[in-house]
Design a protein that fits this description.
This protein has 23 helices and 12 strands. It is a multi-pass membrane protein.
Length: 713
């Protein structure tokens, strides 16, 4: 970006030299635009990567076209290319676009959008494509995105040029019909129209394909990034334990990410589709503004001899500014309504999905009527907010229709009398109509698109708050210290554990759990046993002190309620590792060790195993996972509660036999577990808090804290 800034400044100094020699005030004005644009580029040179793409595109165009304009002013432009000469006003417009783009960084909402977009464009992943003759093309992911966006902008600009060429062909047809000129008519219809129309069609197909293909790729990478961060460090679970204010994170990944990007669906407005659209609009403005300015030289205001330079351009801009401000004032309530609509829609969808997940429990408890009432309540919130949003949308639609009606007839009001008087051809009126509409569309962008922009802002706000919540979880480490102790004991030193509401569960507790010494933790409900396991697993955010833990991957927790992922049985028994992490025969043997040998031949059957297996079978399948994973430490949080005494004994015998070097930490309430755990810790509430008492050796209780209710296991 420094080279662009210096090039703009250098072109500006050259323009100043030519202006001083020729006395052309337009070149003096061009000098100012180029210098200010150079300063703007320098100010944002280290800002958003995504912002720099259109900034660099328009900036380098200003440099190239500025040099061409100066060559024309110096008489160095070839006479054969006079039709392609670039006026200084075009260069000034490009500089103005650079200045506007750079100034966008000062708006907080734009910065939030750019931060999200840059998660893709700052990626360093290297992509590789096989080429003929064994060659390989390697390209960084971020550079691929930069090239795609820049190419999209250039294609849109070329498309605008072809559109204007086609407009002049239409004007030629209109003039030929008006004058009865047969030769002109057939030349326009059979030669000029295909000459510019066919390339335009090819360009549109190429541009649309590029936009859709790249938006899909962008969505894939960005959604994977959000999912990785959401699942990293159990953030998806810890987010429910802190006051993050984040609802339905699954919807934010599934729906808000593609809606933020846009481009993959015709009705979708996103940061990519907005950039593409604005590029086309501003490029049209660049050319049509010059057309309107030149047409204004031949217009007598209302039949008088008064002529105002750029009259049509000033009228279009004035009308657009007034209508834009009026629309923003009227449509301000749409933004919060759109935000809430996404919220209630997600709640409604989540309620339906939850009903499907717990269909058996609902059926057994005859809760269909109650569940229908709950779903109806959530649907009512959707409908109520939708009606309010619909009301504002109708108001905006009526307002847009009125404003568009006035806008579409202003050119007829101004130029119609001249056509009737024979001072202006119908073809020129056609050009003026398109030019007036295009220039007006630049300033009417907010008016015409207010509802879509409001919905886009709601999407951007939801993703930015999701980002903030994930970042906040990453930073929640104050007062905690985790040490890695390979092969050593698990050690609590002055550990304090609290509940999400701030209630203390343990205070300055110290405890040592030695390798090879199986421990049974038991006690009354509400004494924080499961919470203690969550701290050991690294998923509980509300604690302080020092923990010495085994290396990551050597500790496995089996909760009471088993999670079975979608897929075949091999996927379920291998979880959390990939299905190909183990040999099928090893998985079948692990299942046989826990009394599920009949499932061995069904490892590759893809059914809903969460519904097909009973609670006890699911718990035994989880034990089979542990046998395959062979952790150094295995934490069982009532992981055999659904088994009878004989099956529980079989499972623990299998663990003793298959995992002789694994230390077991179990939460349970059955006396049968005592045989497998030489050391026993009893969690007891007391007037001063929860006490962890070692009842296997009669040692003193661990220091304890204020009692509190345990979170549900």
């Amino acid at each position: 970006m420094r080279s662009l800034a210096f090039s703009l400044a250098g072109t500006g100094m050259a323009a100043l030299a030519v202006a001083s020699r020729t006395g052309d005030w337009n070149l003096h004005l061009l000098t100012g635009f180029l210098i200010v644009a150079a300063a703007a580029v320098l100010l944002v040179r280290d800002r958003s990567t995504f912002l720099r793409i259109p900034l660099a595109t328009f900036g380098w165009e200003a440099v190239v076209l500025g040099i061409c304009s100066l060559a024309k002013a110096e008489g160095m432009w070839p006479s054969q290319l006079d039709d392609l000469a670039v006026p200084s006003t075009s260069v000034m417009t490009l500089c103005f676009l650079v200045i506007v783009l750079a100034s966008l960084w000062s708006f907080a909402v734009v910065r939030r959008c750019l931060v999200i977009a840059d998660r893709y464009f700052d990626r360093d992943d290297v992509l590789a494509w096989r080429l003929p003759r064994g060659a390989t093309l390697r390209l960084r992911e971020g550079r691929l995105g930069t090239a795609a966006v820049a190419l999209t902008i250039l294609l849109r600009q070329v498309g605008v040029i072809l559109t204007i060429k086609s407009l002049y062909v239409s004007a030629q047809l209109a003039d030929a019909l008006q004058a009865g000129d047969r030769a002109m008519f057939w030349d326009a219809l059979l030669v000029q129209a295909p000459l510019w129309g066919i390339p335009w069609v090819i360009l549109q197909l190429s541009s649309t394909s590029l936009v859709v293909a790249f938006s899909v790729r962008w969505r894939q990478v960005l959604a994977e990034d959000y999912a990785r961060r959401w699942f990293s460090g159990a953030a998806h679970y810890r987010m429910t334990l802190v006051n993050s204010g984040i609802d339905n994170p699954d919807q934010r990944i599934h729906e808000d990410v593609p809606n933020f990007i846009g481009g993959s669906e015709g009705s979708t407005w996103g940061v990519y589709s907005i950039v593409v659209m604005i590029t086309g609009i501003l490029s049209s403005f660049l050319i049509y503004a010059i057309i309107l300015w030149n047409l204004s030289d031949s217009i007598d205001l209302f039949g008088s001899e008064v002529r105002i330079p750029g009259l049509l351009l000033w009228i279009a801009m004035a009308w657009a500014v007034v209508s834009t401000l009026f629309t923003i004032w009227i449509g301000k309530p749409i933004v919060p309504l759109a935000f809430r609509q996404q919220h209630v829609e997600a709640d409604y969808r989540f309620g339906l999905a939850r009903t499907r997940e717990y269909s058996e429990q609902i059926a057994l408890s005859h809760g269909g009527r109650a569940e229908a009432a709950i779903i109806a309540g959530r649907l009512g919130a959707v409908v109520s907010n939708a009606y309010r949003l619909l009301g504002m949308t109708v108001v905006m639609s009526v307002l847009n229709a009125i404003l568009d009606g006035v806008k579409d007839r202003l050119h007829i009001f101004l130029l119609g009398p001249m056509v009737v008087a024979g001072k202006l051809t119908y073809g020129t009126l056609t050009i003026a109509m398109s030019a007036f509409s295009s220039v007006n569309s630049v300033f009417n962008f907010v008016v015409d698109s207010f509802v879509s922009l409001a919905k886009f802002k709601a999407v951007a706000d939801r993703l930015s708050t999701f980002d903030a919540a994930l970042d906040a979880l990453d930073g929640r480490s104050g007062g905690t210290r985790i040490e890695t102790a390979p092969g050593g004991p698990i050690r609590f030193t002055d550990v304090a554990i609290a509940l999400p509401d701030g209630s203390r569960l343990y205070d300055r507790t110290s405890l040592v759990l030695r390798p090879g010494e199986n421990v049974l933790l038991f006690g009354r409900s509400g004494t924080g046993k499961s919470t203690l396991f969550r701290v050991l697993a690294g998923v509980w955010p509300h604690w302080t002190g020092t923990l010495a833990l085994p290396p990551q991957g050597s500790l496995l927790v089996l909760p009471q309620k088993v999670y079975l992922p979608a897929g075949d049985l091999m996927t379920a028994v291998s979880y959390p590792y990939a299905p190909d992490a183990y040999r099928p025969e090893d998985a079948a043997q692990a299942l046989d060790n826990v009394g599920l040998g009949a499932l061995g031949p069904k490892l590759h059957h893809d059914v809903n195993w969460a519904q097909k297996l009973s609670g006890g079978e699911q718990q035994r399948l989880a034990i089979a996972r542990a046998i395959l994973a062979r952790p150094r430490w295995l934490l069982l949080d009532e992981a055999t509660s659904a088994l009878d005494a004989d099956l529980e004994r079989q499972v623990y015998e299998a663990l003793r036999r298959c995992l002789p070097e694994t230390t077991l930490l179990s939460i349970g309430h059955r006396d049968s577990l005592l045989a497998y755990h030489p050391r026993r810790l009893r969690a007891e509430p007391s007037p001063g808090g929860v006490v962890l008492e070692d009842v296997s050796s009669g040692s003193s209780p661990a220091r304890h804290a204020d009692a509190a209710e345990e979170m549900p296991a």
